[in-house]
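A quick aside before the break. I want you to see a complete sequence-to-structure record at least once, exactly as it would be stored in a machine-readable document. Don't worry about memorizing anything.
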Amino acid sequence: MITKFDISHFRGIRHLTIDGIKQLNVFLGYNNCGKSSVLEALYLFCDPSHPVNNMQINRVRHYYRMDASALPLNFYDLDTSVPIVFEGFFDDQEKRRLTIDYISQELDKTDFSDLSLTNHKYDKVYGLSNTLTIDNTEGKKRFRFVIEPIGDGKARVGVNKQDGEYKDSFNCGFMPPSSNINDYLDSFKDIVENKEIDELVCSLREIEPRLLTLTLVGQQIMADIGLRKLIPIQLLGDGIRKLFSIAIFMYQLRGGVALIDEVDNGLHYKSMPTLWRTIIHMSKKFQVQLFISTHNIDSLRSLDAVLAHEENAFQKQSNIYTLRRNGDGELKALRSDYEQFEYMIKQEMELR
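That is the input. The structure line, written in tokens, reads:
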């Protein structure tokens, strides 16, 4: 489990330290304060062997260019001379450092069939380099992963295996504010095969009491709500779709890290207690470490009410971080444990 995380020179964050990280970590703050950037930084850090993520992460923000012009966008102030650096500390005393460098190299394109003093041409090759250093009880290892866009939406990826074969040590996933249910078909099949569908349906029934069961027909998830025909789950409304997606998402990440941006997006405030109960239940059952963003006060009140009914052990595994930005790009994460969070909610103090 991650216990501390440092971000340097990423997007609008010159520097940020997040300390005292627990199993449930909720990030609050004004719009444009950096909540989404923190989750994106964690995602890049947790999946370092795929440098293409440095560009693909922009798709979450509906920016789809994948050429050389997209490479500098994640660097603070677009300054590619200073690398992006993420450092993470884990509860098993392991330390990881991921450095993302911008690559620009000139290639001499001399035409030897017509040698002259004026026929020298230069092409530039652009790319990104992910350098991961892992320091643990077995010693220190270093891995390097490189991506170079080559046009037409394609890229060349290289791996430096000087310290052996790199293997991802845990699952990590990023869920944007809106997601597509069809992305979770394979995991839904696993739930059906493992006879775990009743537990999922029970949670969803708090939002849609008519729901009897869910099943897969071809490539479509269908719901039985007592009508003469099954209906596609998408037709049951935003609340069902959101809760279903989050539950399946966490099922996929057993023993890993779940990053959920604007967790309550599209939900009515009356559905928020169900959302938080489901998230906490899945986190405990599947040992998923959670990093979640929100700026909805109703959602925070619901979280407080749900945590109040949790056992003391999980309350101690819950943190609320309020992000505050100063004038020079320094971002502060002000941490509140459950007792402090509960007090602020009861006193109606400004949290966001």
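Two observations worth writing down. The CA atoms of residues 33 and 321 lie 12 Å apart. The first strand starts at residue 2 and ends at 10. We'll return to this after the break.
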